[in-house]
Amino acid sequence: MAGVPVWRSAARICAWLATAGAGVILVGAASVVISGWLIDGVEQVNGDRQTATERSALGEYFGAVSAVFSGLALLLLVTTLLFQQRELQLQRRELALQREELVASRAELRRSAAADLRGLHVQLTQMQMDDPSLSEVWNDFPGQPHAVVKQHLFANLTYSHLLLAFQWGDRSEDDLLHEARDIVRSPAFRSYWAASRSLKASLPPDSDEGRMFRLFERAMAETGGGDPPPGPGAGAGN
After folding, report:
1. Is 158 exposed, middle or buried (0-12, 13-18, 19+ CB in 10 A)?
2. What are the C-alpha distances in Å from 16 to residues 11, 25, 84, 192?
3. What pLDDT does residue 216 have?
4. Which residue has the higher pLDDT, 21 or 146?
5. Which burial class, exposed, middle or buried, applies to 167 when counting CB atoms under 10 A from its CB (0-12, 13-18, 19+)?
6. Which chain regions cross the lipid bilayer (predicted)?
7. How does pLDDT run across 177-212, given as a tens digit for each residue?
């Protein structure tokens, strides 16, 4: 019973193949007959086979001319594509320049914001230096006389100024090291460094602040100060 459907399927396939073959034969025969009619019609219109051949040669001439124009059209198409490619490249370059200008504008805005924030920090520090009672708000250097607190605050402003110049690229590490060697010779700055060193030492070593700290530590060691001992208010500093 299972072989009956298979036999029927094979019979159907054979029938379809026979029908397709017959269709191909009929189409081929019809094409031959129609081609003969067309050839007879062309010969009757042109007079004889020689005239038809001459007119066919004339048609081939126009075919050659058509091929020339087709080649010119292809050449124009290729030229147009090349110009479009050139325009796309110019547009990409313009977009790249616009992105660079946008990045530079953002960097300038960040620098401007940092400068404004720095100016506010200077104002707050100036208020703290002018009014001893305000020193108790931040309590950076507890137990120190106000004259010493003012020295520490000024030293911190100097240090922050150099850090900002380093971050903006106005100072190289060699420039900072040279300036640090002069600054750390001051006993007042050494006192400030002792009071704020532990906080600065905890900063990430790969940050600008961390690199700045290591430069001043190197300057301390080169000028004979070594590692300054921790002083009162060892966690202080801005």
Report:
1. middle
2. 9, 14, 53, 102
3. 92
4. 146
5. middle
6. 15-39, 61-83
7. 888 999 999 999 999 998 888 888 888 888 888 998
C-alpha distance from residue 117 to each of 122, 123, 151 (Å)? 9, 10, 22
Measured at the alpha carbon of residue 208, what is the angle toward residues 103 and 142, in degrees to the nearest 5?
A: 130
- Give 238's pLDDT tier (boundaries 50, 70, 90): very low
Question: Which are the contacts of 194, defined by CB distance < 8 A and separation ≥ 6?
Answer: 228, 229, 230, 231, 234
Indicate yes or no: pTM above 0.70. no
| Torsion on CA atoms 123, 129, 133, 136, rounded to nearest 10 | 80
Q: Which position has the token pair 């106000």?
A: 146
How many other CB atoms are there within 10 angstroms of residue 97's CB atom? 10
Question: What is the identity of the amino acid at 18?
Answer: A
Neighbours of 105 (CB within 10 A): 10
Closest CA to 237 of 195, 183, 185, 202: 195
Helix ranges (DSSP H) in 47-145: 49-130, 135-138
Tell me, what's the pLDDT at 164?
84
Q: Is the dihedral of CA 150, 155, 158, 164 positive or negative?
A: negative
How do residues 21-57 score in pLDDT, each as one tens digit?
A: 666 576 666 666 665 665 565 556 555 556 656 556 5
